[in-house]
Amino acid sequence: MATMVTPAEAEAEIRAIMHERIDAVRDKNAAKLVAHHAPGVLSYDLLEPLQYRGIDAVRQRGQTWFDGYDGPIVYEIVGLQVVAAFDVAFCYGLHRVSGTTKGGRKIDMHWRATQGFQRIDGAWRIVHEHASIPFDMNTGKVSFELKP
Amino acid sequence: MATMVTPAEAEAEIRAIMHERIDAVRDKNAAKLVAHHAPGVLSYDLLEPLQYRGIDAVRQRGQTWFDGYDGPIVYEIVGLQVVAAFDVAFCYGLHRVSGTTKGGRKIDMHWRATQGFQRIDGAWRIVHEHASIPFDMNTGKVSFELKP
What we know:
The structure is a homodimer. In chain A, about 25% of the residues lie in helices and about 45% in strands. The first copy, chain A, is an alpha+beta fold. The interface between A and B is large, with 43 and 43 residues.
């Protein structure tokens, strides 16, 4: 099994992919954002609808996200946890973004994100992704002000 | 390695745990709901705050959820996908709940959920959980009416 990696190597590979993701967002590069996604990825995004199917849908959603910002997007992942076997892994953490929208609104928000990976033909692929903000039961609204 | 299981066996074990979860919700049994959680589970819940740490917090949240319903909770998981290695796994799908709240409100809603598992001392444990409803960017609100 030439593709066998140890859990520690697998974790390092996943962390490198998530680091690339940070670069992709800072570069506003939607193609780079999905460079490690599987063609059939199923994504649960921050925004409706319930699910996005396939890498094209995820890339387009990324492009729309980037297009909404005027100037730089400041982006980091706080407290990333990685759980990895040799060919299956998942990770989770809080994603923080700040910047100014084209409408002039200042953003500084956190959301939660989970990625599920499979190692296919020797390369890790994101087969599932889940990003969200929790809501307040009384108002039915999410808050962009939540801090960890 | 006495605890070694094949990916197919691992998937069957995860599906059995998720089936128990369905029973736990229908029984409104919060202890059963967390019977396979790790003590240090990190949960991203539907409701604020951003994260819940530890099995006690998850059980209490489950109890509050169950206490909000008058009579039976109808609960199912739609299209559950399981990705499993011998000691790491994750699964995701749409969770549907219907019933009547103690305030007399009829509920029939879907949300997205992802569970991350580690096999520890021969037993699968949920170490991470993520449940959410996406929001509408124009209103900042989630919709309980979303269907897959």
